Amino acid sequence: MINKKVEKAINVQINAELYSSYLYLSMASDMEGKSLQGFAHWMKSQAQEELFHAMKMYDYVAERGGRVTLKAIEGPQIAWKTPLAMAEHVYKHEQLVTSLINAIMDLAIKEKDHATVNFLQWFVKEQVEEESSADDIVQKLKLIGGKGDGLFMIDKELATRIPLFTFPLSGAQA
Ligand code: FEO
pLDDT value at position 70? Predict the structure, then answer.
């Protein structure tokens, strides 16, 4: 049986993961509107990954005999001034998510919930990658001044990225 405090914290995080998906889908829509299909593709892939994260947590709570209780998802920002502003927002958001995951990890350690500590290790590792890939795009955009031929090339590069996860989404996939 899952520790109740930990169950509550993971439920809050499921909402945060779903919000992340919503935010990234909103970014994808903004980029589509600006004819930046590569950036839109990147953000759609990110949105899928966030859904996967939420499902992974959902399955874990259920497996441990807990209960997932869903709350309203906050509406995300709908437009960004530039692709660089959007990428910087992704990077900042992933840093926030890292701090949220770390807080649940701290709680699981405090509560001596070893199974959850083990479960969260995957997310700790994932956040290192999430921050790194967002920062990589921020740095590239800064390097090219955020526009012109360089922007076109980055958009082309992002269009070729293969999504890590595809539908149907299930936490059992990894
Ligand atoms: Fe679910 Fe991008 O962290």
Answer: 97
Query: Which residue bears the tokens 């509550």?
Result: 8
Expressed in angstroms and rounded, the spacing between residue 69 Cα and the centre of ligand 1 is: 20
Residue 101's nearest CA partner among 72, 130, 77, 74 is 130
Structural domain includes residue 11? yes
In a domain, 10, yes or no: yes
Mean pLDDT across the chain, nearest whole number?
93
Q: What is the pLDDT of residue 174?
A: 45
CATH number at residue 73: 1.20.1260.10
pTM for the full model?
0.92
Instruction: Give me ligand 1 centre to Cα 94, in Å.
Output: 6
Q: Is the Cβ atom of 113 under 6 angstroms away from ligand 1?
A: no
Q: Which atom of ligand 1 is nearest to the CA of 126?
A: 3
Distance separating alpha carbons of residues 105 and 174, to the nearest angstrom: 20
Whether 163 maps to a domain, the answer reads no
